[in-house]
């Protein structure tokens, strides 16, 4: 089966089974399609595995303190026995093992040679696919080869609903460690599923298994239909119906056998209250008619289309090219352009970290990738914010404010789902009350999409209501002073080391932009589409009020040295020097400090003022940007995976790329090397989006300035060239940057771009622009 895989540069391969790294590999090898994600766990499981399938939008809070993304029934379960011995890492010796993820086609291949009994050997190979062409279809091919024996082979192919989510870890003494096979058992597991139906229609051709579960609190029905099709007739076969599990067992003579397991998944979210069972069975019949090979071929064609839009390469650095493609792969399997009711959680669909909740990570780190490569997916991600607008209105009402306030952690309804305390209960999270900048982050995402695509229909139908309702929140949330200025008190900026602050620079600058933009959109719609403003109940007086608040909002005064104070009183805090760095040359906490006791210092968790400078390039001049980069970069501990990417981009922008390659590597390889130590919990998917921005917006120098595409690239000396692709208002643009210049390949209408500040007219075909005034490399 390995011949189905692409060439080596597209492959992420594990050689040998390492139980210490097994959970990390499960995250890395997730297969998915935006509808679902299935971790790369071995089909038969192993002690200490952390298996999971997650369906976008399927949340529940039956016995958890806040809503969880549900660990859904397992479609993958497949065990092999030889003369009664189960082939797994506990019961047999692993002589050879490979697990390979094909980034180009989304296939996961596995090969293991087990030694069991008295020296007998059996080779197990599998190939799995979560179809990108038909998102509710999954397929698994299993080939079992007796290498030196003729022992009887029995297989168990199951649909398994015995799933639990991880919950709060009990407080153990510092340094407590548990064996790999029991570490997850020490968690307090939460239950979200009840079994509602199960059944099987037998047959030697695998028959049909059906399992149906329902989320206990949210009432979502989940249906799974499966058929396991053998290449040879079994000696005997049949189904067993267990409480939450349907198992097909079959026994074969001791010779090679191949089995194709085809699975169709559906939920009541898909059928609008229709019959989930009938929908799943009909879909399964279509999958059986197509067969495994056709399913895989259609999936590969869908992937080819995506890579044609999104691929990037770095000449002279194949490892970084692979890391870039790895991140893009995971971004693509996290988004569903066909479902405007779901978004991307902080760990995508690859794990339970952050309970599957959606943060500002989407709009700030991930959305730009989709806006400029897959705009249909970007539109869908933003439509989710409209879908959850009712919950955002309720958040504002609960907090005594008008309009809508998006939650810091969002799930299915738009209500606030951020926990109040850390898992051990020792520390309070203030993010749920104070990181109100999320409203402006969402607004910026809306306008970034509209600007890049020209999709004014989206603005009229969806975006305007988001802009206006969130602006109403700001107009009500500000506090007016006797001097006629507006303040935002008791807030938290992106730097979460500092809570309860007043007039955070990032928040206030973004709010000013937000209110001015909303007022401008009102004026446009009032003139061209007055019915929209009427539908939303917006008056000219209200838009005038937004402009008044924007003009009066308190912005920190710039010092003579161009520094912008992060919030009122920041410069009075203790300036604690960073003196130690870890093995990745990233800062360590100074002695005695940790996340929850940096309030009185100038230490930063992640970029705050710098983030404002990045998001609003039209507002700040080069001298201001450079001064603030130099000051704040030295005080940032990068305790968020999104931090290195922004520092890489801003360092290049200000002409100080000395650490850009290091920051890029930290971001690009965060999961491949597990350099934050928690990849087992799921992908750092925001870091994948940030890494794309480093390559395209940092090294490629792409920004949108005053509504125009602009390029100011910089290449490391060790790189020969970079290649990336962009979409802009219906046109496709292929960009190559090397040490001689830039080459643009345009498919679409003529386009004017800026290169090193100079206008360049692009026409269909290829245009090469040499570097002239600005050196590269």
How many E-type strands?
29
Q: How are the strands of the largest sheet arranged? A: 1-8-9-10-11-18-15-14-13
Give the integer mean of the pLDDT values: 95
Low-pLDDT parts are 773-777
Features:
777 residues; 29 strands; single chain; 19 helices; alpha+beta
Overview of the molecule:
There is one protein chain. Helix content is 30%, strand content 24%. The chain is α+β, with helices and mostly antiparallel strands and 777 residues long. The strands form six sheets. Strands 1-8-9-10-11-18-15-14-13 form a nine-stranded antiparallel β-sheet. A five-stranded antiparallel β-sheet has the order 7-6-12-17-16, with no helix packed on it. The protein has 19 helices and 29 strands. The radius of gyration is 27 Å and the shape is globular.
How is the secondary structure organized here?
Elements (H helix, E strand, L loop, with lengths): L10 E5 L6 H7 L2 E2 L3 E3 L14 E8 L7 E5 L5 E5 L2 E2 L6 E10 L4 E10 L3 E11 L6 E10 L6 E8 L32 E9 L6 E8 L5 E10 L5 E6 L3 E8 L4 E11 H4 L4 H15 L1 H19 L2 E3 L2 H15 L28 H13 L1 H13 L1 H10 L32 H4 L3 H16 L2 H22 L1 E2 L5 E2 L17 H24 L1 H6 L4 H13 L56 H7 L6 H12 L9 H11 L6 H9 L16 H15 L2 E4 L2 E4 L9 E8 L2 E8 L2 E7 L3 E5 L2 E5 L2 E6 L7
Parallel strand pairs: 23-27
Antiparallel strand pairs: 1-8, 2-3, 3-4, 4-5, 6-7, 6-12, 8-9, 9-10, 10-11, 11-18, 12-17, 13-14, 14-15, 15-18, 16-17, 19-24, 20-21, 22-23, 24-25, 25-26, 26-29, 27-28
Brief account:
The protein has 777 residues and is an alpha+beta fold. It has 19 helices and 29 strands.
